[in-house]
Specification:
heterodimer; A: 225 residues; Rossmann fold; six-stranded mixed sheet; two-stranded antiparallel ribbon; 8 helices; B: 495 residues; MetI-like fold; globular; ATP hydrolysis activity (chain A); ATP binding (chain A); P-loop_NTPase (chain A); ATP-binding (chain A)
């Protein structure tokens, strides 16, 4: 099967600094892939490049969330489908939520624990709640591929894992940058390690242990063992 | 969720709706009829004139420009000196009150007052600008000084106030902020100076008014273009090193002033501005006169002024919502440069002049005043909002077109847009009063007619009432956001 995204010797420079160096990787449809590595390793930049290549085919959940504080939770989730609907209908929906989308968003937000918050402006939400809104928005885009940049970093590991499972179930392919090694091993079938803009390893999750990953984060090379 | 909770969580939206409701309620009380049925033909002629500027008498044009510059230079020099000294004593309440009172009276009203005893002289023009500007400078300088760290001064001269310590520390620290603020204020002074022509002083405004009134739009356009060029090129010719020279020249260029008659001035202050009853010692009669004037003239005129400013504020809000995208790169891409130029153009045109042109187009009513205030202030806030829009961090997958505007830009920018507009509301109120000079039934109309009828007592009372109204509006807008004032002024300078 042909790859969804294929990078060969990809290098990214910004402001004279090398952010990604000589990255080669191919992502096949159906893969669930975790990107791990210390902050500044280039995870977000790699995700950005993948998003650029996939374009409309991928749903994005960026690290900064990009929510609009003044709008309600419902509107923030609805925004994922702005492009699909008539602009005038979108304007109408700002003041009088459309029945169809409202029902869909309600269904979607039920398991995320957001159903009671739909009419609240995002500004008043906690960090964890905001993160769940961003996840709901990405899911509402209903794309084949999910690209997430630390989408569950503000949630407790148990809830985070549960949400990652949901996201994985809702998308054929998922590429997620994670900070938590345990989540990467438990919920993904392939793990890519980045360090200093370079690809450190690219292995099936089953072949890695939590201890190896923890050592990788500390700067060691235990994963090679 | 309860309905009150819904509004409590959306404070900006509910406040904006409150102001919109106030504007709607005010609307039926204002005369907004179209007195000229076909403004488009006249507008076409003005447009044509703008494209074919012409001036037959180069000498008189040059003289008007020189006078405009000279008034502005002399006034700003005086005001900087006075404001600088006052700023040092700004913590004393009498100074604060005096400054608030001088800046609460518009330049044109000061001009009308001074004209009564100095005549149409250079002194009238310079003082009319210098006095309110001194009050403004005193406060802004005091604010800027207060922002500076006091540590360097304590190190140099602990516990003592000395001039040299002040110059070497606080003044030196505040210097960049002061100079950039002064540059902006000088531009304001140029506008004020030009506008003083509308009450007869020999500046650009005088020729503009007569050219427009005679329908000689080519000539009016020439003056306008000269004025725009003057403001647009400010940053090149207003060189720091040349300013002392300019000021020196300005003092010699000023039109001649007749000798000041102290007795006339004394008479004005002690007799003319007080009602007859008060002069004769009849305090009950004076009180009755004041009560009558307040209920018959002052309150209705003040109410009309406030209502007009509210409608103008709402209209400016609508202008901003739809105008800011034209100068924002995320909305229109490279075309934003053209939009930006248009906004600068709109912003550089004094409200009074805009209102005057609209008056010619649609006839005398509140409509030209509302249009002028909405366009001028809406243009300014649009510029600042567009700038903010281009700084917003947007997601890689953000929407485009109307969706971007409705779901990302407006919701994110609204709090700031609203705060800036409320800040401008104070300015709109001042200007609404002054637009009465053109015949709109605001306070300025009654001031102007009182002066025309030599009813100095009534004129003085009306001006005092206008000042009180402005001070009240100032207090309201200060409560909204204090920090925004300086920021908006400083940003506006860069347009």
């Amino acid at each position: 099967m042909s790859a969804l995204v294929e990078l060969q010797g990809f290098t990214l420079e910004r402001g004279g600094q090398c952010i990604l160096r000589d990255i080669s990787l191919a992502i096949a449809p159906g893969e669930k892939l975790a990107l791990v590595g210390p902050s500044g390793a280039g995870k977000s930049s790699l995700l950005g490049e993948i998003h650029r290549r996939l374009g409309e085919a991928a749903a994005l959940c960026p690290q900064q969330l990009g929510l609009v504080d003044a709008l309600s939770v419902y509107h923030n989730i609805y925004m994922a489908q702005l492009q699909r609907r008539n602009s005038l209908l979108n304007l109408w929906n700002l003041f009088f939520p459309l029945a169809g989308p409202l029902r869909e968003v309600e269904e979607l937000s039920q398991p995320l624990g957001l159903a009671a918050l739909l009419r609240r402006p995002v500004a008043g939400l906690s960090g964890g709640e905001r993160q769940r809104v961003a996840l709901a928005r990405a899911c509402y885009a209903q794309r084949e591929t999910f690209l997430g940049d630390e989408p569950v970093s503000s949630l407790d590991p148990e809830q985070g894992g549960e949400l990652l499972d949901r996201v994985n179930a809702a998308h054929r392919t998922a590429v997620v940058a994670l900070h938590n090694p345990a989540l990467a091993l438990a919920h993904f079938d392939r793990v890519i390690g980045l360090r200093g803009g370079e690809l450190a390893f690219d292995r099936p999750a089953a072949s890695l242990t939590a201890a190896q990953l923890a050592d990788f984060y500390r700067g060691g090379s235990g994963w090679q063992a | 969720m309860s309905l009150t909770g819904f509004w409590r969580e959306r404070p900006n939206l509910s406040r904006a709706l409150l102001f919109a409701a106030l504007a709607l309620v005010s609307l039926p009380f204002l005369d907004i009829e179209l007195h000229r049925p076909d403004p488009w033909q006249e507008l076409g002629r003005i447009g044509l004139g703008l494209l074919q500027p012409r001036w037959d008498d180069a000498a008189s044009l040059a003289q008007a420009v020189l006078y405009t510059l000279a008034f502005a230079f002399c006034a700003v020099t005086l005001a900087v000196a006075a404001g600088g000294v006052l700023a040092l004593f700004y913590h004393r309440w009498p100074v604060r009150v005096a400054c608030a009172a001088t800046r609460a009276v518009h330049e044109l009203f000061w001009g009308l007052l001074f004209m009564q005893f100095f005549g149409l002289s250079a002194l009238t023009g310079v003082l009319a600008i210098a006095l309110p500007f001194s009050g403004i400078f005193a406060r802004v300088f005091a604010d800027i000084f207060a922002e500076q760290s006091t540590l360097p001064r304590q190190v140099i001269a602990p516990g003592r106030v000395s001039l040299s310590a002040l110059c070497y520390t606080t003044l030196a620290q505040a210097w960049p902020q002061l100079t950039s603020y002064l540059r902006y204020r000088f531009e304001c002074a140029l506008r004020s100076s030009a506008i003083l022509g509308f009450i007869g002083l020999p500046t650009v405004g005088f020729h503009l008014e007569s050219a427009f009134r005679q329908g000689d739009y080519a000539e009016a356009a020439c003056l306008l273009w000269v004025f725009y060029v003057m403001i647009a090129t400010l940053r090149w010719w207003l060189d720091r090193r040349l300013i002392p020279l300019y000021c020196l020249i300005a003092f010699f260029v000023l039109p001649p002033s007749p000798p000041v008659s102290v007795s006339l001035l004394g008479e004005f202050v002690t007799r003319d501005i007080w009602p007859l009853a008060l002069r004769e010692g009849d305090y009950i009669g004076a009180l009755a006169w004041y009560a009558q004037e307040v209920t018959r003239v002052v309150l209705p005129a003040a109410a009309y002024t406030v209502m007009l400013s509210l409608v103008a504020l709402a209209a400016a809000g609508v202008v901003v919502l739809f105008l800011f995208p034209i100068a924002s790169r995320v909305c229109v891409g490279r075309l934003a440069i053209a939009g930006h130029a248009l906004l600068v153009f709109v912003r550089s045109t004094p409200e009074l002049l805009l209102a005057f042109v609209f008056l010619l187009l649609v006839g005398p009513s509140a409509l030209p005043a509302i249009l002028a205030l909405a366009i001028h202030n809406g243009g300014l806030v649009s510029y600042l909002t567009a700038r903010e829009a281009d700084r917003l961090p947007l997601r890689a997958d953000h929407a485009h077109g109307i969706n971007l505007w409705a779901y990302e830009l407006v919701p994110r920018l609204f709090p700031r847009m609203f705060a800036l507009l409320l800040y401008r509301w104070e300015v709109m109120m001042r200007e609404s009063a002054i637009l009465g000079i053109l015949g709109v039934a605001t306070l300025g109309f009654y001031v102007d007619s009182a002066f025309a009828q030599f009813r100095m007592d009534r004129a003085f009372l009306l001006i005092a009432a206008t000042a009180l109204l402005n001070i009240a509006a100032d207090a309201v807008s200060q409560r909204v956001n204090r920090g925004l004032r300086f920021e908006a002024d400083a940003l506006a300078r860069d347009c």
